[in-house]
């Protein structure tokens, strides 16, 4: 084959480009306008969706957060906390594989989605990233004013360039790939607790 002849790779890429459909503008989301009114606040909608996904949901006032977290993580042999309202019992290990024995991770979320009960965690911290999947139990603290209605609103707030890692978390780890039998904790935390810090300034519709 001479240098002037296209390679098989170039031929395949050319064929793929030639087969691309014409570009089309992204359609506007249709479902928010057609969504039936549930009569629930954002917080209540989030709580119901998170509970349906298998999470434990606790609501408390800001001044009571430290006490609630102490009760939530009490009894755990190892705790790694990323919030000042809970105390760590271990330091981040030099080898992240050692986090496979971590009892509880406590962290904060700056965004959650009411429609599906998912909390967004974005971080540049490799230890936090690993602990989210290796801890037996994850406790996420979320301020009520950071709850949005749906994923459309969530994506408008997310800056994917801010951190190298981000994940939506809804409930503990679950899989039913084998014989359609549900297994909890197969590839992540066995338990998830969502602690919602209530906002007394929100109105009856949950809109801050």
Quick tags:
five-stranded parallel beta sheet, 11 strands, globular, 208 residues, alpha/beta, Rossmann fold, disordered C terminus
CATH architecture: 3-Layer(aba) Sandwich
Counting copies of identical and different chains, the oligomeric state is single chain
CATH topology description: Rossmann fold
Distance between the termini: 67 Å
Report the structural category: alpha/beta
Helix content: 25-40%
Q: In terms of per-residue confidence, which ranges show pLDDT below 50 for 5 or more consecutive residues?
A: 201-208
- The CATH class assignment is Alpha Beta
Radius of gyration, CA atoms, in whole angstroms: 22 Å
The number of helical elements comes to: 6
Q: Order of strands side by side in the largest beta sheet?
A: 1-11-6-3-2
What is the total number of structural domains? 1
Number of strands: 11
The biggest sheet, with number of strands, parallel, antiparallel or mixed sense and barrel status, is:
5 strands, parallel
As a percent range, the share of strand residues is 15-25%
Q: What is the general shape?
A: globular
Fourth-level CATH superfamily: NagB/RpiA/CoA transferase-like
Order of helices and strands: HHHEHEEEEHEEHEEEE
């Amino acid at each position: 084959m001479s240098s002037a002849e296209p390679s098989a790779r170039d031929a395949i890429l050319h064929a793929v480009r030639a087969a691309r459909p014409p570009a089309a503008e992204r359609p506007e989301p249709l479902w928010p306008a057609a969504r039936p009114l549930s009569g629930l606040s954002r917080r209540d909608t989030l709580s119901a969706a998170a509970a349906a996904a298998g999470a434990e949901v606790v609501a408390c006032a800001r001044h009571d957060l430290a006490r609630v977290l102490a009760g939530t993580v009490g009894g755990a042999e190892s705790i790694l906390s990323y919030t000042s309202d809970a105390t760590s019992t271990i330091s981040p290990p030099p080898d992240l594989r050692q986090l496979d024995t971590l009892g509880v991770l406590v962290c904060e979320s700056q965004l959650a989605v009411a429609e599906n009960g998912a909390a967004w965690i974005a971080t540049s911290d490799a230890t936090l990233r690993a602990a989210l999947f290796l801890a037996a139990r994850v406790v996420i603290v979320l301020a009520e004013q950071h709850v949005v209605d749906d994923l459309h609103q969530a994506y408008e707030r997310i800056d994917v360039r801010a951190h190298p890692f981000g994940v939506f978390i809804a409930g503990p780890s679950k899989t039913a790939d084998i014989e359609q039998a549900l297994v909890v904790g197969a590839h992540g935390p066995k338990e998830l607790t969502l602690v919602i810090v209530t906002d007394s300034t929100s109105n009856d519709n949950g809109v801050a």
